[in-house]
Amino acid sequence: MAYIGVKVKKAVGDTVFDVFNTIFWIIVLIVVIYPLWFIIIASVSDPDAVIAGEVLLWPKDFSLIGYEAVFGHKELLHSYLNSIYYTLTGTALSVIVTMMAAYALSRKFAGRKFINFLFVFTMFFSGGLIPQFLMNKRLGLYDTALLMIIINCVSVWNLMVARTYIIMNIPDELYEAAIIDGAGHFKYFIHAVLPLSGTIIAVLSVYYGVARWNDYFTALVYIRDRSKLPLQTILREAVAMLTTSTSTDAFFSAYEGDVKGMTEAIRKALVAKYCSIVISTAPAVVLYMFMQNYFVKGVMLGSLKG
Amino acid sequence: MNSDRAYVNKGNRASLFKRISQAVRRDWQLYVLLLPALGFIFVFCYLPLYGIQIAFRDYKAVFGISGSQWVGLKNFRDFFSAYYFKRLLSNTFLLNIYGLFWGFPVPIFLAILLNQIEWPGFKKFTQTVIYIPHFISTVVMAGILYLFLSPDSGIVNVFIEALGGKPIHFMIEPGWFRTLFIASDIWQHAGWNTILYIAALTGIDQELYEAATIDGATKLQKIRYIDIPHLAPIVVMMLILSCGSLLVSNTDKALLMQTPGNMVKSDIIGVYVYQMGLTKAQFSYTAAIGLFINIINFVMIITVNWISKKLGETSLF
User: Fold this and answer.
1) Any CB–CB contact under 8 A between B50 and chain A?
2) List of domains in chain B
3) Structural domain for A128, as ranges
4) A53 CB-near residues (< 8 Å, 6+ apart)
5) Average pLDDT over residues B292-315
6) Is residue B87's pLDDT more than 50?
7) What is the mean pLDDT of residues A23-49?
8) Looking at CA atoms only, how far is residue B127 from chain A in angstroms?
9) Complex ipTM over 0.85
10) How many folded domains does chain A comprise?
11) Cα–Cα distance measured from residue B48 to residue B294, given in angstroms and rounded to the nearest whole number
């Protein structure tokens, strides 16, 4: 704009536009942030204040009884540990397996087209829930922790994103040079491809990790032994089921004895729900915030090709 | 590099066996790298295809998958003549079509307006914030709905009562099901779904904007004559592709939001298959329903892919 030496004035229309755009975005930000903020402040407020609608912008009668109830709930805590275990092992496995396959598919070799087809086909057609269930049962995976780790291990979509990343970001000359030096695919993959794939590994970790952390349906279908349930399935019982009145709301208030204890437990149960939402959502959101710089870049790349 | 040359040289055709052995000798490490991924998709995607046959059998656990009796198309006929057939199909379809109608334009709109924010700090902050809800689990999303909309303690009904209204049983009244389902979907994912469009907008040549500025174009005119024409091909593509999944069930979420009250609207195919199949053990019947829907989805997705490819070749790019 400056190179022709004319200072271009901002049109009046543009200023009006900017004002409205800013207002619009402030409203959007409130719509996005407020529910999340409300959950956080309700989780540290007194239950009576929450029920009375007195908690609006700031915690009222600060209290941690909800968190006490959550951290005192053995089953919930146990499922939390289960989820950490399933997520860490499952994600590590997924990322390694995906990167290996993505590198292989980025090279030219006999049979690549066919193997590629084998992967892509699964995106379009599946056996469906029931055949999958019967087959996994027959394989002895029903009600096992192993299933929770290895099911959906490879997402073909992620595989294709990773392959595209490798093709576009790792120069072919590097491969030529490595081959002349006598390196095979293993060596090249470990010493050249992996170190240059930080961004995509971060993206895959977040994708796989969040998907596994947030999944409740797999356990609903496959896990009967309650000590193996992941957090989300337990959380469903705690917060995402219909409770017509507080008296049927048994999850957090089940184990209090006398009547006085009972009413106190019901009071606790309400804020405990907000607390359990906070502690279950925090890891995924924090991971995203932590990784977001890599992340947005890598995802954009993937979405452009896809 | 000798083996390489032999591999490329097609004039001097070696026997098939020889060519295969050369390819394997040269690239066996690649096949090894592929093996784990292939193994996983074999077990979890291809083995179940073998189990599809129970849709044509009367599956009994004692006889196993291949030992149960053939019944031909009986399971399919049962489904087509089932009392709930029409309701299931229309609930699944309508939930998706309304979702597409309300949800599809939002990310495009957001992306265009986000692109117009001039202060980089505010832009970055906004972008960061609108992606957050995408990372919330479906269970928590449903939990938020139950909590906020609860008739006796939910903040929404507290407000309604404060304004003199009667509390609404949002999660029980069937009329609210689709609205809540779609609105919460938009809240959760519209921000995230802007990524594709923002990437496309970022790819526009900056000189176009500079030239437009010199010509005295306003921001609205730039949106109208630069942004929208550039987004159009992707928008059309995405719209076509979305039409391929109009009978796909979002089982996870519908199951969480389903209550005895809203069954009339919330009973979609995926939920029905889960309930009849896994909680009532009607394996063959539900496998048939699953197969029927999967075939429809497969045909639709292949068709829309083909259409988008055709369009892509001729007019869009």
Assistant:
1) yes
2) 2-62 (no CATH), 74-138+170-316 (1.10.3720.10)
3) 64-306
4) B155, B158, B159, B162
5) 83
6) yes
7) 95
8) 10
9) yes
10) 1
11) 13
